[in-house]
Amino acid sequence: MAWDEWEQAKARAQQDAAMRLNQVAPERSGGGGGDGDLVVHDNVLGALGNAAYSLRQHFSTASDHARQTTFDASIQLFNDGLDMGSALTELHDAWNTKAGTLKEACAHISNHLDYSRAEHAKDSVKIATDLRTIGGDELSVSRINDYYK
């Protein structure tokens, strides 16, 4: 890339970044805009948590399918004096490490979503309880607005 092309590319990138800072371009859908409130749907969190758990369970079974056979083959090849045996052992060990990492990640996602659902439910109960106990009586929306003035 010539120097002029580099300078032109940098200028275009700066213009694009300046136009879309922290938002999606208006002609595109999603992202940016709106009132910025975070909306949590319990059923969506639950479905995602179940999907992560299911993925972990299925992957755990599938990833272990040839583990013992691969290890046995690597030992046999090594005992027969072939370098491929030690290479296959390294591959076996690397696969087990990577598979374990992926299973832990799925479990972490599932557990985190379950935790988030439980905390959100507790927060909702606390907010509802706190609103009922402010001032010793049930609060209406108009009474809540009085506290903001």
Task: Describe what this molecule looks like in 3D.
With about 150 residues, the protein is mainly alpha-helical. About 75% of the residues lie in helices and about 0% in strands. The protein has helices at about 5-20, 40-65, 65-80, 85-135, 140-149. It is flat and about 85 Å long.
Q: What's the SSE blueprint?
A:
Blueprint: H1 3-19, H2 42-63, H3 67-79, H4 83-133, H5 141-148
Uncertain runs: none
- Major beta-sheet overview: none
What is the SS-derived class? mainly alpha
The amount of helix comes to over 70%
Q: Overall pLDDT, averaged? A: 79
What is the C-alpha radius of gyration, as a whole number of Å? 28 Å
The dominant shape is flat
The H-and-E topology, N to C, reads as: HHHHH
What is the number of strand segments?
0
- Give the DSSP E fraction (strand runs of 2 or more residues): under 5%
Number of helices: 5
Quick synopsis:
With 149 residues, the chain is an all-alpha fold. It has 5 helices and no strands.
Descriptive terms for the model:
149 residues, 74% helix, mainly alpha
